[in-house]
Amino acid sequence: MIKKWIDISVTIKNGMARWPSDPPVLIKQTKNIDTGDNDNVSFLSMGSHTGTHMDAPLHFMPKGRSLDKMPPDAAIGVARIIPIKDKVSIKPDELRKHRIGPGERILFKTKNSTYWKKGSFNKSFVYISKEAANYLVSVRVRAVGVDYLSVGGYHKDGVQTHQKLLKAGICIIEGLDLSGIKPGKYDLICLPLKILNSDGAPARAVIRRRK
Asked: Most Cβ neighbours (<10 Å): which of 62, 65, 140, 205?
C-alpha cells in the first residue's frame, strides 16, 4: 500500500501567530465571481518568515546566500522526527540519546505544536539552545526543522543559534505543525517560494512515513 503524504505546514490566514516585529498577515479578495467578476483573485501581504517557512543565510549574515540560491534538495529526502521532552529548550544531552549522524534531516517535535491552535504568539516556545546548535554542527546534520516560528529563543539564543546553524550551511525550516505526528523516519518535501534575493520565504512541507 502506498503511504499517503501528510501536510505538516501551517495554514496561512489573517490573525495567525507571527513574530511580534514581523508584518501582519493580510489576505483580501480583490476580485470575486459572486459579485460579477470573471475570476477570483486575492491580495496577499505578509512577512517572509510567516507560518511554515525556510531561513536563508542572508537572514542573519549580511553577505550570506539568499534562499533562491540555496540547493533545493537540502529539504527533500529522508528526515527523522525526534521527540523533545525538555519544556524549555533543546539541549545536547537530550540530542545525544538519539545518536544523530552526518547528513541527517532532523525535525524536532516539542510542546510547541500545541500552540498553533491559539492565534496569539507564545514567547515561551521550546527552542534550540546555542549549545545544541553547536552539537548539531559538530555531527554535521544537513537540515533542522522546528515546530514554532524560530530555531532560537525569544528571550535567549535567538541570534546565536541562527548564526551557528546558517554559517555551517545547515538548512533551517521553521513553523512546522507536528501535532499528531509520531516520531520516526519520513520522506520529506519542503520547498520555499522562489523569491529573488530573499532572506526567507513561506514553504509547503509534507511528509510520508517510511517503512
From this structure: 205
